[in-house]
């Protein structure tokens, strides 16, 4: 059983990803930032892997990555971000990140970033329109700092319609 620490300040995303990873047999603990992440690893439980969001309130994901690497030198860390850039990718790799994944990311993409071929998505298979729509909605929501009304306005949707779409899990492209 792989022990995974999930550090993300987006409670909804963190809860869903933790549940998905747990359902796949992983021992998952969650944290909303550096302070609680360090508390999680302060005892006997030491994760083999960590999934860390790049942009969080308080210390950034790069700072969390740096501290995790100090505390647990053999830990594999995947950095998640909706704000990818060459500079942050290079910095994350320099600090010891195993990989770098753009949000929104699903469980298969994250496990594939760790090199878990059993869960790797079929790269040749195109994404469904529902999946692309879900990604655009979530990217716009991040750009609007979580403001649903502003996100709905930018996307030309009614706020309630947007809320219904946000309440759904990411679409499964295997159907």
Structure description:
The protein is globular and about 50 Å long. It has helices spanning 11-23, 34-40, 61-71, 86-94, 107-113, 129-143, 148-155, 159-167, and strands at residues 3-7, 27-31, 49-53, 76-81, 99-102. The chain has a 5-stranded parallel beta sheet with strand order 2-1-3-4-5, sandwiched between helices. The chain has 2 domains: 3-119, Response regulator (Rossmann fold, 3-Layer(aba) Sandwich), CATH 3.40.50.2300; 129-167, Orthogonal Bundle (Arc Repressor Mutant, subunit A). Helix content is 45%, strand content 14%. By secondary structure, the chain is an alpha/beta fold. α6 packs across α7 and α7 (148-155) crosses α8 (159-167).
Query: Care to count the β-strands?
Result: 5
Run of helices and strands: EHEHEHEHEHHHH
Helix content: 40-55%
Highest-level CATH class of the largest domain: Alpha Beta
Q: Could you please say which CATH topology of the largest domain applies here?
A: Rossmann fold
Mean pLDDT: 80
Form type: globular
Beta-strand content bin = 5-15%
Q: Which structural class do you get from the secondary structure elements?
A: alpha/beta
CATH homologous superfamily classification of the largest domain? Response regulator
CA-based gyration radius: 16 Å
Q: Show unreliable segments.
A: 118-124
Structurally, the number of domains stands at 2
| Main sheet summary | 5 strands, parallel
| CATH-level-2 architecture of the largest domain | 3-Layer(aba) Sandwich
- Beginning-to-end CA distance, first to last residue: 29 Å
Provide a count of the helices. 8
Write out the strand line-up for the largest beta sheet, numbering strands in chain order.
2-1-3-4-5
């Amino acid at each position: 059983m792989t022990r995974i620490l999930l550090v993300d300040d987006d409670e909804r995303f963190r809860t869903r990803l933790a549940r998905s990873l747990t359902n796949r047999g992983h021992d998952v603990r969650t944290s909303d930032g550096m302070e609680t992440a360090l508390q999680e690893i302060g005892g006997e439980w030491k994760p083999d892997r960590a999934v860390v969001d790049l942009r969080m309130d308080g210390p950034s994901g790069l700072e969390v990555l740096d501290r995790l690497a100090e505390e647990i030198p053999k830990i594999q860390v995947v950095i998640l971000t909706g704000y990818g850039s060459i500079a942050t990718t290079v910095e994350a790799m320099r600090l010891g990140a195993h990989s770098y994944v753009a949000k929104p990311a699903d469980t298969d993409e994250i496990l594939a970033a760790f090199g878990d071929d059993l869960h790797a998505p079929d790269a040749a298979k195109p994404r469904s329109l529902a999946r692309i729509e879900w990604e655009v909605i979530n990217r716009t929501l991040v750009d609007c700092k979580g403001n649903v009304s502003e996100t709905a306005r930018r996307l030309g949707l009614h706020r309630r319609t947007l809320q219904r779409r946000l309440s759904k899990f990411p679409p499964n492209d295997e159907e």
